[in-house]
Amino acid sequence: MATARPPGRGSGALPLWLLGAALLLGLRLCMELHRPGSGSPGRHDPPGPPRPHLLSPPDPPRGARRRQVTYVRSGRRALPRGGGTTTLEPSCCTPGGLPSRKGPRWHIELQPWAGPAQSLDEEALRFLSYISTTQIACDHMGTDSLATDSSPATKPWLVCLDDRFGLAHQIRSKQCRLYSLGLGSDDTHFEVSMANDGCEVHRFDPSVKSAHVLESQHLWHHRLSIDWRDPHPAVAAQKSHSNTRKLGSILNEFGHHKIDILKADLESAEWKVLENLILEDVLEQIGQLVFEIHLHWPGFEVSGSESSVVRFWYSLLKELEQKDFRLFHTYKDLSKPQLFLKKDIFNASSCYTLSWVNTRWK
Q: Methyltransferase domain: which residues (predicted)?
């Protein structure tokens, strides 16, 4: 007669054994997943190529300083590495560090309106009176270096040779430097004269055939145009003969700390160039300014009503005064059209040449 099995024995014990084995297997799996180097469960990289391992750059040796490299464009070609020959243009200047300047200003301070009406008449009369009145007396003026002119009123390009301003001494010691900014002018009498007396003369003109031409021992011609902004790097890279620079960039590239004379005939670009010199504090490196100004239209990138244009011109010249520049000579060119903002008014010429001296120049 068959007897019944007691509960918990025989086939009933098999599930308990399987349960113990499953627990041991689970513990072993957890230990494997938490071993160092194993990935976290449930996290998967997105599809695509494996991500590289990025290594941080090694630290510099103890005591070493990180070097900051500044790239400056130059018209001169360097010799190939390891020697060899190549066609070199004359080398005029050695790049060098310049004194650090203050951060650039973004706009000039406009002077108050000349009158309550804010009219062209009010602004023009104030401006024309300002450029027609000298602010400081210069006893010795000249166009031919140290040869003072007997009739300076008939000559446009004049410098002040009074000993108190130092230019005459710089010329005698052959340590003066002249920058001449132009646009295709053939009249280089002033530049040649200064070079013959030993001044280092740099004439900037985009019509020059070669990048740098040494005409005589002291006279350089550069195929460069002075602008109020540097070209965008992407644009400059596409033009192998990019020839536009700010004056501050040229000074940095040439390694020049000072300019004794800055002469400019920029055919209506002078207003924006002058604004750039003011905003970037380049004026502090200049001893005398001789600028031809043009009044027959507002000038490049100068806009607004007629009265606001003249107010802008006047404000620029007042900025020069605030920088201790004083007007010592003014020349009204009667050979040019007598136009003021395209109008025959105020008995004004369309062209004046103005000469300033930096009274703080040393």
A: 169-295
